[in-house]
Amino acid sequence: MDFFFFFFFFILNSKPFTNDFERADIHELIAPDLLHQLIKGTFKDHLVDWVQDYINAHNSDAQAKVIMDDIDRR
Fold first, then answer.
1. Residue-level pLDDT at 72
2. Which of 51, 54, 59, 69: disulfide with 64, CB 3.0–4.6 Å?
3. Lowest model confidence (mean pLDDT) among 10-14, 16-20, 59-63
4. Taking the CB of residue 47, how many other CB atoms lie within 10 A of it?
5. Residues 55 and 67 sit within 8 Å (Cβ to Cβ)
6. pLDDT-derived band at 39, boundaries 50, 70, 90
7. DSSP one-letter code for 29
8. Rg of the Cα trace of the chain?
9. In 10 A of CB 55, how many CB atoms?
10. How far is residue 20's CA from residue 36's CA, in Å, rounded to a whole number?
């Protein structure tokens, strides 16, 4: 009986040590990451692949390489 009292009293009534940290709210920390993954997955991965396929399909190999090199130049 003492074990259950100890377990439920201390475990259920305790707060995590990050409770008073201003920047440690998991709900605020995970939102930008989800937004980043959504944007990266939609725009970078999908859209860039689609544009590459489109350029390769509508141009010769040499011309497509020139266009892709021009796009990739920074």
1. 79
2. 59
3. 10-14
4. 11
5. yes
6. confident
7. H
8. 26
9. 15
10. 27
